[in-house]
Amino acid sequence: MALTPVVTLIITRFFLPEEKGLSPDGADGVDRADDLHGRVLIIGFGRFAQVVSQPLLARDVDVSIIENDVEMIQAAGNFGFKVYYGDGARLDVLHASGAGTAEAVLVCVDKPEVADHIVELVKAEFP
Question: pTM for the complete prediction?
Answer without folding.
Answer: 0.78
